[in-house]
Amino acid sequence: MPIKIFTALLVQDVQNDFLEKGAMPVAGAESVLEPISTMAASFDRVIATQEFRPKNHVLFADSHEGKKPGDVIEIDGQSYVLMPKFCVEGSIGADFATGLRLPMSRVIAILKGTDSKVDSYSAFLEADRKTQTGLQSYCEDRFVNRIYLCGLSRNGSLIRTALDALHYEHQLYWVTDAVAGLTQEDESGISLLKAKGVKFVTSEEVMQRDIR
């Protein structure tokens, strides 16, 4: 008997604070709003992640007396660059981006960065590489095994999500015109994903897919 394929659109961190006028702008963020909105309307399952950080997050500069954004601190033997407050839980900055249209009756929200002592990048695992966000549990419960990935990348976060998706044996599609925030440092990660068989598609090709 053939294995049933359940498909989801994974929209990562498309939030107000990552837009041009937000606290932590991601280059080109506004360009993904329309292709993601168009694609989302065609999916029965839309997973949207949100960074949702406590206001006293350890990497916020004002959590440390006398520190400012850009200063470096050491935590458990590792160096971290302090940041301004962004995507604070309950704030407008943490909301889905203005202009992003999602079919909310079909959306599951996955919150990231909720632990004040742990950073967040991948949609599957927090930066300690132990704490689950709940995304993989959702995929297992709903038998989701094919993911179309899009959204905003901060410090390689989309690459990390993609690699985790492959680790959990999902079929992965990277939607090229619905991704922003990549840098030259991500080029090696993109090459690795291609070598691992990730399919790179456009949002137009996603709209023409056979499997819904």
UniProtKB/TrEMBL annotation:
Stretch forming the signal peptide: none
Translocase as UniProt keyword: no
The keyword Hydrolase appears for this protein: yes
Domain of life from the UniProt record: Bacteria
Gene Ontology molecular-function annotations: metal ion binding; nicotinamidase activity
Pathway membership, UniProt: Cofactor biosynthesis; nicotinate biosynthesis; nicotinate from nicotinamide: step 1/1
Domain Isochorismatase-like: 7-204
EC numbers, comma separated: 3.5.1.19
Enzyme class: hydrolase
Coiled-coil regions listed in the entry: none
Family from the record: Belongs to the isochorismatase family.
Name of the protein: nicotinamidase
